[in-house]
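Quick one before lunch.
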Amino acid sequence: MQVYLVGGAVRDKLLNYPVYEEDWVVVGATPQELTKQGYKQVGKDFPVFLHPDTGDEYALARTERKSGKGYYGFEVYAEKDVTLEQDLIRRDLTINAMAMDQNGQVIDPYNGQKDLKQKILRHVSPAFKEDPLRVLRVARFAARYHHLGFKVAAETLELMHSIAGTGELNALAAERVWKETVRALGERSPQVFFEVLRQCGGLADWFPEIDVLWGIPNPAKWHPEVDTGIHTMMVLEQAAILSDQPVTRYAALCHDLGKGATPRENHPSHPGHEKLGVPLVEKLSRRLKTPTEFERLAKIASEYHLHLHRLEELKSKTIVKVLEKTNAFKQPQRFEQFLQVCEADFKGRTGFEKRDYPQAALMRKALERCNQIKAAEVIAQGYQGKKIGEEIHRERVSAVKKLLSEQNPEASILE
Ligand code: ATP
Ligand code: MG
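Model of the magnesium ion complex:
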């Protein structure tokens, strides 16, 4: 039997990109031969094994033929006579369809190296259309390698367009879609994932609340880029600079969904879009079956981002209310993520990218001051029952008032 390194590891080695996992393909062996050598079979549908020492995945070379609808509608053939070339042609992109033998020699029947040099994401064969998830995968690779200058090949984009046109993306399992999405959110340029999906008409199936944002205007004074879809992509780009956490980036993506639901006669203004966005975030998140922390942070971002932008106009009472409503005292890390989303929202506008966002620092200080008020001390003063919470709240408000007057002596007079 022969063993080859395949897929992402070969691609990323040739790109001089960090390799996180190594996948191997085994040609000319049977499952019995592998188990005898100590490999552990995983998964019933595909002949995939784990190496006894490294835990790497070893798959028997296989061919796949579409035999029905959905992910499991594949006929897999993995007998000893399947060649490396046959295994490579079932893969999605030419740059993912290379193998490397034990001497470091690259086997590249579908010109992956050429596409790597020319920075092109190109499908290997027409069988690409047999798994609609590949549309999302291409968009994710575009997001990952955007900064290197990679582009989707015109003919691949066309094929993606026709797949999206059949409505097959809808038939994907939410779990697979979310898995690709959360990986895409973790890539270097996550906004490109959504842009590429939109370009091939594949955004509306799973992300209709985002898709509708294009064409919805904002006031040019605050949004020189005007369009809400463009703004959202710029915010996601900024969020990716501020944080590598998919949860923060997801909330950035979702912060303005409410603008898709405001009455047209009010445009380009969007009064009340913050609250209008909350049920839309819920709808999107439940469709995608996101973990709850994604939905929670995104809802907070939608409902409270304007409060942060307008922090300097808020009364101390309202600032404390925002801290309490967002549960900042008990979940300071999530609150920090929320502040990053607000900053990304501010910077995600044409010409605002390098501007300061002092609101975040001020809000951090407000939280810090409020944190100095301890329940134990309030109780020691003789407060009981419901009165404890009320007194804590009152002391928080005066602490924030004091902070504001230190920052800006005129503010306290105004209040
Ligand atoms: P990453 O660095 O994100 O892991 P990868 O290319 O290794 O990228 P994997 O999802 O680990 O991606 O898959 C390993 C290889 O298996 C891919 O390079 C590709 O050749 C093939 N592959 C995975 N999923 C599909 C799919 N849905 N359709 C076709 N080929 C696929
Ligand atoms: Mg991989």
